[in-house]
Design brief:
Blueprint: H1 3-23, E1 37-43, H2 50-60, E2 65-71, H3 87-100, E3 109-112, E4 116-119, H4 123-134, E5 140-147, E6 150-156, E7 166-173, E8 176-179, E9 189-192, E10 195-204, E11 210-214, E12 227-234, E13 241-247
Length: about 250
């Protein structure tokens, strides 16, 4: 065989081996985790300023933005009892009041990843804070269904500042409408997305933590096809949300 032809064949074989090695899973570069941002909207059906903020929440919600609509209780005595309001959300907003050193709570208030608070109806500011939060270091949160009533979550890649963080599980429901009969929004049909139906603390997280937890969606008023499970990791001292994930049951 001529020497020149032999060299060509050897080069081709080497190239083929290299190409094959590069396509093996163990040789592929790891995909970068997307930064999932949590937007909490403290709102109420009794507040006439809140429907525009509910619309903003629906607009910014997407694959990388998880919407948590948290209906507070302090509007309930002012003409309309919000069926989604819970004291846990009022208490959560009051914790943010102290963190942000505000003089009082208000609606509609949007809190982005626990680090910035803005008027919930100000779409430009909300989007600006989302972009800022998405550029920050984040932990990886993986979420999967284990059975009809249990989910498994795994937390990894915790930044150094997240060592005291805790995991939370929220169950949200979207595509909700309410015909408000009285109060400031009397006569209006309000639409909501990401309404938090249940929120509970799961406990302290550590690097590589993997746990399975039971979920309950037994309330007859919840529409199963509109539910979403959300797990997020938050530092109780700084209020920063370090990572999150969601899935539909």
């Amino acid at each position: 065989m001529p020497r020149q032809l032999l060299l060509i064949l050897l080069a081709a074989a080497t190239a083929l081996q290299t190409s094959t090695a590069e396509t093996k899973p163990e040789n592929r570069p790891a995909a970068q985790n997307r930064s999932i941002v949590i937007v909490e909207l403290f709102t109420s059906e009794g507040c006439s300023s809140c429907p525009p903020a509910d619309e903003v929440l629906a607009k910014v919600e997407g694959p990388e933005v998880i919407a948590l609509g948290e209906h507070v209780t302090y509007w309930d005595r002012l003409g309309w009892k919000d069926r989604f309001s819970q004291s846990i959300f009022t208490e959560r907003q009051e914790a943010y009041l102290e963190h942000f050193r505000l003089s009082s709570v208000y609606t509609p208030q949007a809190v982005v990843n626990g680090q910035a608070e803005v008027l919930g109806s100000d779409q430009g500011r909300v989007r600006k804070e989302i972009a800022k939060a998405a550029s920050q270091p984040a932990a990886s949160v993986e979420l999967s269904m284990q059975s009809n009533d249990s989910v498994r979550y795994r937390v990894s890649g915790l930044p150094l500042g997240a060592r005291s963080a805790e995991a939370f599980l929220a169950i949200t429901e979207s595509s909700i409408e309410t015909a408000v009969k009285s109060g400031e929004n009397g006569g209006r049909n309000l639409r909501h997305t990401g309404v938090v139906r249940s929120l509970r603390r799961l406990g302290r997280v550590t690097e590589g933590l993997t746990e399975t937890v039971r979920v309950s969606t037994s309330s007859p008023s919840w529409k199963h096809e509109n539910l979403k499970y959300v797990v997020f990791v938050q530092d109780p001292a700084t209020r920063r949300i370090w990572g999150a994930a969601s899935l539909r049951p």
